[in-house]
Design goal:
Layout lengths: L1 H12 L6 H27 L2 E9 L2 E8 L2 E8 H23 L1
Antiparallel strand pairs: 1-2, 2-3
Helix pairs in contact: 1-2, 2-3
């Protein structure tokens, strides 16, 4: 959501003839992401699970998973997180393209 929101603001400022279609495309994608995030949050709440971002240390980011009183801390490489974010954006963009047809 952060990346899409940032990109939307940048597109609004670009000297393009038609910014509307790009903004609509990003808005549709953001709507789909928000819907999926709501489902994920509902699932976590129902199953009494929590996910929190921990420390960022250099090239790693820590995530904390909490379930049934147990806490699991895992470090993920920022490069891997970035690549996975890009994969997810491609999936959501593909869905938005199909939806528009």
């Amino acid at each position: 959501m952060t990346i899409l929101s940032s990109d939307r603001q940048r597109i609004e400022k670009l000297p393009l003839k038609f910014t509307g279609p790009y903004i609509d495309f990003i808005d549709d994608t953001m709507s789909a992401v928000q819907s999926d995030l709501k489902q994920t949050h509902d699932y976590l709440r129902r199953n009494q699970m929590k996910l929190a971002q921990g420390k960022r240390e250099g090239i790693f980011t820590e995530y904390i998973f909490i379930h049934n009183g147990y806490e699991d801390r895992r470090n993920y490489a920022n490069v891997r997180l970035r690549n996975h974010t890009e994969e997810l954006m491609n999936i959501y963009f593909s869905k938005a393209k199909i939806k528009k047809k």
